[in-house]
Amino acid sequence: MRSIAPWDDRVFLDVGCGTGFHLPRWAERARAVVGVEPHGSLAALARRRTRRLANVEVLQGTAQAVPLPDASVDVVQARWAYFFGPGCEPGLAELDRVVRRGGTAFVIDNDATRSTFGAWFRLGYPTVDPDEVERFWSQRGWTRVPIDMGWSFASRADLEAVVRIELTPEVADRVLATHEGTEVDYAVNLWWREY
Q1: Dihedral, CA atoms, 51, 54, 60, 63, nearest 10 degrees?
Q2: 182 CB neighbour count, 10 Å cutoff
Q3: 89 Rama sector, left if φ>0, alpha if ψ -120 to 50, beta otherwise
Q4: Signed CA dihedral, 37, 43, 45, 46: sign only
Q5: What are the pLDDT digits (tens) for 133-163?
Q6: How is the chain classified by DSSP, letter by letter?
Q7: Residue 83 has pLDDT above 70, yes or no
Q8: Which of 18, 22, 60, 127 would you label with 78, given CA atoms 20 to 30 Å apart?
Q9: Which domains are seen in the chain, by residue range?
């Protein structure tokens, strides 16, 4: 992301910031960082995590209703907040509203076309068409950067717990029965767009 749109001395928005894990990282370079999280308990954890960072604010809100003024942010990051492309148009309309001219938005999402987790994802979400997802983003002027990453867990129990969060019990049982070890290769797409 930094190679595309550095956030040094700019206003950075993290949509779906969760517990605020990444907020301190953004705050190292940004003039101001705003985390937006729909779940009150997670927003509270994010506030607690960043309470000593004067340039960080955490607000409760959604991707479809970002509690910020028009043209108020320079760089936006949304990690797994805009699932599957089609259906997230209200959230993208909010990006159109809050991102300043010359700003950049990044959306990180699963790449179901490759990797072990991609195959698991296709089993768990058979109605999601990866070609349709790519068309959705491309037709709206977003550029895709494919990224290879992975999961590495300290124990098999940790791996299984995360897989069971991501997939239905039936699909989780099926994929775990055929996968050994504590690591999983994982492919994601970094979608980005300038405003």
Answers
A1: -130
A2: 15
A3: alpha
A4: positive
A5: 999 999 999 999 999 999 999 999 999 999 9
A6: -TTT---TTSEEEEET-TT-TTHHHHHTT-SEEEEEES-HHHHHHHHHHTTT-TTEEEEE-BTTB-SS-TT-EEEEEEESSSTTSTT-HHHHHHHHHHEEEEEEEEEEEE-TTSSHHHHHHHHH-TT--HHHHHHHHHHTT-EEEEEEEEEE-SSHHHHHHHHHHHS-HHHHHHHHHH--SSEEEEEEEEEEEE-
A7: no
A8: 127
A9: 1-110 (3.40.50.150)
Lookup: tokens for 98: 């809050």
d(CA 187, CA 58): 29
Cβ neighbours of 179 (radius 10 Å)? 16
Burial 24-34 (b: 16+ CB within 10 A, else e): eebbeebebbb
Decide if 171 contacts 120 (C-beta within 8 A). Answer: yes
The single-letter code of the amino acid at 128 is V
